[in-house]
Amino acid sequence: MSLVITPNKHQALSVKNQLLLLSLPANKRTRILKTLGRHERQLARKRIRSQTTVDGSKFAGRANGKKAKMLKRMGRTLEPFVKKANRLELKHKQTSVGRIAALHQDGGSETMTAGRMARIHGMVDYDAPATRSQAKALIALGYKTKKTKGKGYRRATITEIVANLNQRKAGFILKTLRDNSRKTRWSIPVKARPFLGDSTVNVQRELVKIIKSVNS
After folding, report:
1. How many other CB atoms are there within 10 angstroms of residue 211's CB atom?
2. Which of 23, 98, 104, 177 to pair with 41, CA 20 to 30 A apart?
3. pTM higher than 0.70 for the full model?
4. What CA–CA distance (Å, rounded) separates 107 from 47?
5. What confidence tens digit (pLDDT) does each residue in 156-178 have?
């Protein structure tokens, strides 16, 4: 995932300023675009700190309802790269980080497996209470509990599952239910949280400012 800017009349510059930029030596053009890239990176980092998108709206909330800030590390690895002194790419150094950033930028779905969950979360304290994530997964798979009055079963609540099951038992029940439904992997929807990007007007204004400062 990257922000790509090529200074031309459609994207960033008027004809007059295009000609001015093209008249400069390659090292100056590279310097100008690098400076623009650092400016755009600063804006992206500011949006992540304020948890707002390019258009100023708040990030879509977490699926689990937690209020912790999202994408905190995404701005740290952004770097401006200039190609052939006429094309700026603001992107992540590591491809894996770029893929995660792109998923949050545009939205989509992420495939999760039990093995990947184990790699992400490491060793599990099986005697600790079941997690809210386990509880939600159990409910989604149809887990039920006995009715307090009368006969039969009813859908369990998150609070009941966390209070009455430890992680070992919840994990065993999940595995049993998933095996029965032959579900070895599942898809997690990810909402779009676009933090990287800018309008043509803003890019043009900043680029002209940088060109003037370099030529002054």
Report:
1. 21
2. 23
3. no
4. 17
5. 999 999 999 999 899 889 888 87
